[in-house]
Amino acid sequence: METATKTENIERMKYTTEKNISGAEIMVRSLIQEGVDNMFGYIGGAIMPVYDALYDYQDELKHFMSRHEQGAMHSAQAYARISKKVGVCFTTSGPGATNVITGLADAYLDSTPLVVITGQVGSGLLGTDAFQETNIVGVSMPVTKWNYQITRADEIAEIMAKAFYIARSGRPGPVLIDITKNAQILKADYHYKKCEGIRSYQPMPKLNKTEIEAAAALINSAKKPLLLAGQGILLSGAEDELLEFVEKTQVPVACTLLGLSAFPTNHPLYVGMLGMHGNYAPNMNTNECDVLIAVGMRFDDRVTGDTSKYARQAKIIHIDIDRSEHNKNIVVDVPVLADAKDALKALNKVVSGEYRTAWMKSFKDYYQIEFDKVIKKQAYAKSDQINMAEVIRILSEQTKGEAVLCTDVGQHQMTSARYYGFKRPNTQITSGGLGTMGFGLPAAIGAQVGDRNATVVSVSGDGGFQMTLQELAVIKQYHLPVKAILLNNSFLGMVRQWQDLFFDQRFSNTQLENPDFVKIVEGYGIQAKRVSSRDDLETAIQEMLDSPEAYFLEVVVETESNVLPMIAPGAAVSDMRLE
Amino acid sequence: MKEYTITIFSENDIGLLNEVTIVFSRRKINIESLTVSESEVKGVSRYTIVAFVADNRIENVVRQLEKIIGVFKALYFEADQIVHQEVALFKIANSTKLNGNLENLVRTRNAKILSVNPDFLVIEKVGYKADNQELFNELEQYGVLQFARSGRVAVSCQKREFTSYLKELTN
């Protein structure tokens, strides 16, 4: 009987037309039509009919039940970023829906494609302050690419097609679909047709020949060019085109935080990370270059520092798919409205350049200064306590830069970005724009679901880890071999660093009296270990990586170490301090 | 800060007005006036928004408006690039004080008497905001019971019309 139902289901899910089925069933079938196979979420009253429909499709649509909706969101985000699919998340109405706001805001700032489905009270109760009613469409409007409230079963298929199309096309982003309970229960005729366009929405700009020519002319005459690679490279899958461009033009490449892993860090033309805690050379040379080629990045204030002192000497080319990003933060000379892949493909036909010995030497010289003053002291520390940087360096060496790193927010995040040698695209998953503490652990869950064979390592601090540690239960329940590193300095390290540098060392509310993390993790049934001596560090990391199952490693690190170098808030990129 | 008139063409969908105003409110820009109704194309709404915006920010605001899904086009204009008007309605108590003075005033001010009741009169004037304000000041001596003014409506002087943008978008 059970097998018959299953075969029947597999057969039925291929249909794009069927008469008189429930809204919940239409919802589930729509997901299958969009190629969804893994989802995250949290059940509750107003979404129960959809979860009931999911019960018949457990093999086709795997649902991972989080322990808090925020966790489900971050898992869905990481899943989207690693699988290049649209991340899907379900929650109930009211508090279930309001708990997705942080994830939506995070995905919106970091251009992550999501379709988030929230249950809603019956349409007759809308506006009456019914139990668990929240105007989530109103609440989520500023943090979604698009949102819509479905109140009838017969609109589900069309709206879901539109939701997936909007989430994944152009500059990707999160879409929220609110669906009333009656729309899930009532029946309608089902007909699924993929969305192929919306007349008021032009996601893929046509390449403008004049813009490409202007950009190429600047690139070909540049003496001291610098390319800034953003997440747009990864989102458009332009890693190969970037590599070809760089090898043709011999232009040095720096990555933004979210652009990391778009370009191999061991390439001779890779010069490091940009921004507040990036590398010394690319920041200093931003104010030395003659042509700045920004690809799929948005001149975030953490990258630019003081905009009035940012690359004033340079001609700036800005390739971006989102027209509203041009001249938003930095006024540019040649805006190119295009998908990064299309633009680089077109440029690759017309650009060339020779290796610029003196220019490249200036990057090497700056690197040497950074190595002597910072890297040597931190990544090869000799102090009593372990430094965060050496943990990441060893992790990078032991995984050969091939692991997927899911980081939280703070000092450990910047340290991971600085010291992990990313070699494969889409292997750094972090909360960039929003800076959401608690992102790392649930993100690792989503990443592991998205790539079952990858070594997925979450790196957190003791502050952020406590914001979403309930998701350990998900790791256990679904047997996910996630490796979780906790860099414990008993402080909110990054805030402590700012207090140290800019608030006269008045350490207000940054020292934490922490629980016994090993006991907590063991309580969830996950193997856990604490290490505090340098002598044990390499073995401990190796043991963690060798484990076929989930593993938690707490590393007790220096309590009062600062992440350097640093561009102080409001300072120019070339005023980066080394100590 | 300069006064700009922003014209937006959008789908006539629930919630779009909210999306539009969020772009202004998040940058702490106050909307001086706002008019929305159907444009020359059926189902397409035309917004006319008046706001004071910094010269170097107006382009960013308009691009962010255009980014909203449901918005076809957003344009901005300075005063000399548009022809604009607003409508004002004045409700005045019908009393012996009027004595024919009103008719004279209405004629010289290019206004008209829209409705006459035993208790009140309604005068309508189409003009610039300042002209309508001036008439209000003059009518005050007769006792203005209500004064309602529309937001600005404006058409641009530019050669390219919305229908040509729409054609480009739907091709």
From TrEMBL, chain A:
Keywords: Amino-acid biosynthesis, Branched-chain amino acid biosynthesis, FAD, Flavoprotein, Magnesium, Metal-binding, Thiamine pyrophosphate, Transferase. Residues 212-347 form the Thiamine pyrophosphate enzyme central domain. Binds 1 thiamine pyrophosphate per subunit. Binds 1 Mg(2+) ion per subunit. It is an enzyme of class 2 (transferase). Residues 408-555 form the Thiamine pyrophosphate enzyme TPP-binding domain. Pfam families: TPP_enzyme_C, TPP_enzyme_M, TPP_enzyme_N. It catalyses: 2 pyruvate + H(+) = (2S)-2-acetolactate + CO2. Its EC number is 2.2.1.6. It comes from the Bacteria. One of its GO terms (cellular component) is acetolactate synthase complex. Its cofactor is thiamine diphosphate; Mg(2+). Residues 22-136 form the Thiamine pyrophosphate enzyme N-terminal TPP-binding domain. GO terms for biological process: isoleucine biosynthetic process; L-valine biosynthetic process. Pathway: Amino-acid biosynthesis; L-isoleucine biosynthesis; L-isoleucine from 2-oxobutanoate: step 1/4; Amino-acid biosynthesis; L-valine biosynthesis; L-valine from pyruvate: step 1/4. CDD domains: TPP_AHAS, TPP_PYR_POX_like. GO terms for molecular function: acetolactate synthase activity; flavin adenine dinucleotide binding; magnesium ion binding; thiamine pyrophosphate binding. NCBIfam families: acolac_lg. Belongs to the TPP enzyme family. This is Acetolactate synthase. It comes from Ancylomarina longa. The lineage of its organism: Bacteria, Pseudomonadati, Bacteroidota, Bacteroidia, Marinilabiliales. The gene is ilvB.
From TrEMBL, chain B:
This is Acetolactate synthase small subunit. Catalyzes the conversion of 2 pyruvate molecules into acetolactate in the first common step of the biosynthetic pathway of the branched-amino acids such as leucine, isoleucine, and valine. Belongs to the acetolactate synthase small subunit family. It catalyses: 2 pyruvate + H(+) = (2S)-2-acetolactate + CO2. Pfam families: ACT_AHAS_ss (PF22629), ALS_ss_C (PF10369). GO terms for molecular function: acetolactate synthase activity; acetolactate synthase regulator activity. Keywords: Amino-acid biosynthesis, Branched-chain amino acid biosynthesis, Transferase. It comes from the Bacteria. NCBIfam families: acolac_sm. CDD domains: ACT_AHAS (cd04878). One of its GO terms (biological process) is isoleucine biosynthetic process. One of its GO terms (cellular component) is cytosol. Dimer of large and small chains. Pathway: Amino-acid biosynthesis; L-isoleucine biosynthesis; L-isoleucine from 2-oxobutanoate: step 1/4; Amino-acid biosynthesis; L-valine biosynthesis; L-valine from pyruvate: step 1/4. InterPro entries: Acetalactate_synth_ssu, Acetolactate_synth/TF_NikR_C, Acetolactate_synth_ssu_C, ACT-like_dom_sf, ACT_dom, AHAS_ACT, AHAS_small-like_ACT. The gene is ilvN. Its EC number is 2.2.1.6. Residues 5-79 form the ACT domain.
